[in-house]
TrEMBL record:
Keywords: Signal. This is TPR repeat. The keyword Cytoplasm does not apply. It comes from the Bacteria. SUPFAM superfamilies: HCP-like (SSF81901). Residues 1-28 form the signal peptide. It comes from Amphiplicatus metriothermophilus.
Length: 340
């Protein structure tokens, strides 16, 4: 059975445990948290539980956090959120930033417990004070929005910066966004570009998208069309629907450089991901036979799906979608009228 994706907290724990772990000895030794973690990563959850259980009972906070994660997710045994909460709380009380973060996540998302942003902020703050980069980002976002505590964009940006300095791509992205918007930092497009470039290089899709937009204009220096296309494609390939739409439009306008791709290829990606603009543009491609065989019936189906997200559309886009729908419906109805 393949291992499920790990939480940010477990990713941090992995780095600490595996860096500290000695080479495996030839003879059997007492179980360690590192050994339990290795079994979990390998997908052997029952073995991970067996190794972590006695360590957790002995008061090892890292083992308590790891076992809490297994209990929370139902890995290697039935899901037991009550026990997961108890293990997380014991580990958090002993100073585990990973467990403090985990409790913050449960409170924020209301996963099996009452949703409580204020309580989440308290746990995130404890973990952030312990130098936990994902917690610094989460607490920064709550401070930016004023969700669960008073809005404080300057402190939020400080937290993003601390996370960024620790190598957290999300922290670098949100710090760049603060410079871009002027919320929490004095607006500075060049600094925004610098931070977004770092986060984009770390594989952060939203940073890649925003960087592409900056490079496509002259806010932070001369336009760089090639760089804009390169980063927009990276964001699109990472699965960001709005980036797929934007990259398709770059191809359509001849601003994507040499490529064998059709705009419709990228509009279809965005459409399949549920993006209303992507669905509309893919409907246009099918209606016009642009990059796809002309298919009015399929085009009508896609424009109908686009209009399901009408609330997310601009008035102009919605009007265009409704006009296309009326034209396609009339065409299809006319064809039906000609049948014997």
């Amino acid at each position: 059975m393949a291992a499920r994706p790990m939480s940010p907290a477990l990713t941090l724990l992995a780095a600490a445990l595996l860096a500290a772990a000695p080479a495996l000895p030839a003879r059997a030794e007492a179980p360690t948290v590192a050994a339990a973690f290795e079994r979990m990563v390998a997908g052997d959850y029952a073995a991970a539980r067996a190794l972590a259980e006695p360590l957790a009972e002995a008061g090892d906070r890292d083992a308590q956090h790891l076992l809490g994660y297994l209990e929370e997710k139902g890995l290697g045994g039935p899901k037991n959120l009550e026990r997961a909460l108890d293990l997380y709380f014991r580990a958090a009380s002993a100073g585990s930033a990973d467990a403090q973060f985990a409790l913050g996540e449960l409170a924020f998302y209301g996963d099996g417990v009452k949703q409580d942003s204020a309580r989440a902020a308290q746990w995130y703050a404890l973990a952030a004070d312990n130098g936990h980069p994902p917690a610094q980002v989460r607490l920064g976002l709550l401070l930016m929005s004023g969700d669960g505590l008073a809005r404080d964009p300057v402190r939020a940006a400080d937290l993003f910066e601390a996370a960024a300095e620790a190598g957290e791509a999300a922290g670098r992205f949100y710090l760049g966004a603060a410079y871009l918007s002027g919320d929490g930092r004095r607006q500075d497009f060049r600094k925004a570009k610098e931070h977004l470039l770092v986060a984009a290089g770390q594989g952060h899709p939203e940073a890649q998208f925003d960087l592409a937009l900056i490079l496509g204009g002259d806010l932070a220096g001369p336009p760089d069309p090639a760089g804009a296309a390169r980063w927009m494609r990276a964001a699109a390939e990472a699965g960001l629907p709005e980036a797929a739409v934007a990259y398709g439009l770059l191809i359509h306008d001849g601003r994507a450089g040499e490529t064998d791709d059709s705009p419709a290829d990228w509009f279809e990606r965005a459409a399949e991901a549920g993006d209303p603009q992507g669905r509309f543009l893919y409907a246009v491609a099918l209606a016009e036979g642009d990059g796809r065989a002309r298919d009015p019936v399929a085009a009508l189906q896609w424009v109908d799906r686009a209009l399901l997200g009408a609330a997310e559309m601009s008035p102009e886009l919605r009007a265009s979608a409704e006009a296309l729908r009326a034209r396609l419906a009339a065409e299809i109805s006319g064809r039906s009228d000609l049948r014997p």
